[in-house]
Please model this.
Amino acid sequence: MSTTTTNSEWNVVYLFSGLALLFLTWKAIVFFRLFRPRNEHALRTVAVLVLGDIGRSPRMMYHAESFAENGFMTYLVGYGGSKPIPSLETLPKIQLCYLPEPPIFLKSLPFIVTAPFKIAHQIVSILNELLIRIPEPPEYLVVQNPPSIPTLALVALVGRIRGCKVIIDWHNLGYSILALRLGNEHLFVKIAKWFEATFGQSAYAHLFVTEAMKDYLVKEWNLQGQKIVLHDRPPKHFHHSSPQEIHDLFSNTKTPISAILQPSLADFLPEAKPPYSTPFTDISKPTDSESSHPTSANPPLAPPLPLTSQTYTEVNPPTLRADRPALVVSSTSWTPDEDFGILLDALKIYEERANAVNSSAGDGTGKAKLPKLLMAVTGKGPQRDMYMTQVSKLQKKWKWVRCISVWLEAEKYPLFLGSAEFGVCLHSSSSALDLPMKVVDMFGCGLPVCALNFKCLPELVVHGKNGLVFNDSAELAKQLEFLLVSFPDAPLLASLRASLEQATRHPIDGQATALPDTEEWKWSSWGENWNLKMKPLIAGGVRT
Model:
């Protein structure tokens, strides 16, 4: 059974089994309210619910981090799997509350039999965490949407029982994601839309990732409660990697990056001798023979000098190699709403253009060369194997392009992003109202971005200022060429980097310095933006 089919079946079963079970649960818990006064919840306490892998939910992890840094006892509720960001395991006011997985024996039974049990198990597990295991009613209850079913109904129930102030963080619209598979007119899509609008209409506050989403939902669903646009921003530790950091990342033989680069790309990458050089960096020292030939294009790597040597005078820091390939990254979930075929077709065109340009570069015309292009695609998803099989067949004949798939934990991910030249985003919003978090991460690491165009993308990517916007594979291929011509001294790429760096805002005396929303384009860290937008919302500490 395919993943797409399974996801659709889950939504259908959720709509009917979930609603029935929620109704029964609601009736059963009404009695519980008599013994838990609503005005006795704990001030400066918050529960953050994400119905998914905590480690793969960056925005919700950042919410939890910011609440904890502002003195809130923070309970982050969700599933395990990927490792969360390091601060969530070190901050004293954060408690990770992992939801239990369904019993293993259910996996051996047919879906139609196990689905109701899994749904019941999920609902009971969430209610157990929010109503019982969190000892005192939290002041705030923050929930990620989507998924809408059953989370929006559950937090409404818990908020009513325990007197929590519910905050809905609108990442996207759940019914629009279902519509990608079933179509907008399908009965289940209409039911899902009703569910989302009904249980999402009223809350203490609504957070939106874009102005477009706020305007749409306020108009269409008449949302009740405070409304705040909280654009995604990267955490403060995201930055462009230094040559030393790049060298350490690619010379460490225990990282997934090293394992992928060494065996599969030996004939594509320049020669490297870790730990003294990598395909991207070099710490070799010039020898006497090398000094007599300063114009050598590819000087041999000098062996390391012993500590007892009388000629040992200095340790050279790593530098970026002039003969390195251009490392470009694209983060994807490998799902139909991110068409990897666009990138694959663009890579085919780049290979053809590089062959043509580089074969004519030595004809005396002085035409600039195009470099080798190493495309690294991060992420996990159902279409990964299908596309990477196609890539493997194609690149057997390619000379100038290679494409690899990598998966990194949260600790290494920003270092890897910061090692690249620029990023490519294939995100096409199901609702046309959300923005891709992957672009936010890339900007945080100092990378300009080539991004697939859709309705509200200009709220994040400004064409010609912090990146380039494309509509199809042909446009993307042209942008790859324009950005990489004369690499590593690529003028357009340098211009976009300078613009991105200039737009970055830094705190003054610990205060946020984000610009007003009327500015054409602005930038700040997650912490600065969160303090500017969220602090006024949670500063009251008033009992309900």
Observations:
- The CA atoms of residues 7 and 123 lie 17 Å apart.
- DSSP finds 18 helices and 15 strands in the chain.
- The domain at 243-284+319-503 is CATH 3.40.50.2000 (Rossmann fold).
